[in-house]
Design brief:
elongated; 2 domains; 3 helices; about 15% strand; two-stranded antiparallel sheet; 3-stranded antiparallel sheet
Length: about 140
């Protein structure tokens, strides 16, 4: 539960919890006071905020920030640079620390699995398109 009280100095509304015990409240204007829930004077000219935090169904902000941060001129060079870094790590595999070796094996396994999956999908697509079998719907 929260309490909303106006700052005595600047009249800005301050919202603070009253179920956390005695706490120090500081306004952006610099005024500070001690909020003791047992003191009845704190409730004078204050309102209660009984509503908890509102749950959002889906937050779009991280996706919007991601797409705004994309620079089209940096995508291809980034792919090339990451490919060259991967090639360098593969060439110097024996000198890498153990955790880097495990990461490299995982990355290579994922790449092989993706390529094998693409080949299998393309095989089934072309095999289905090239055979003149009757399709029952």
């Amino acid at each position: 539960m929260h309490l909303i009280k106006a700052c005595p100095s600047c009249k800005k509304k301050l919202r603070f919890p009253i179920d956390k015990g005695t706490i120090k409240i500081r306004c952006s204007c610099g005024y500070s006071f001690i909020a003791d829930p047992d003191d009845t004077g704190i409730y004078k000219d204050a309102t209660f905020d009984l509503g908890g935090p509102k749950r959002r169904r889906f937050a779009w902000a991280p996706f919007i920030r991601f797409f705004k941060g994309l620079k089209p001129g940096r995508i291809i060079p980034g792919i090339i640079n990451n490919g060259l870094k991967l090639k360098y790590k593969i060439q110097n595999y024996r000198f890498l620390p153990d955790d880097e070796k495990r990461k490299l094996i995982l990355i290579m396994g994922i790449i092989v699995a993706v390529i094998a999956g693409l080949i299998a999908v393309l095989y089934f697509i072309f095999n289905a398109l090239s055979s003149p079998k009757s399709i029952i719907v």
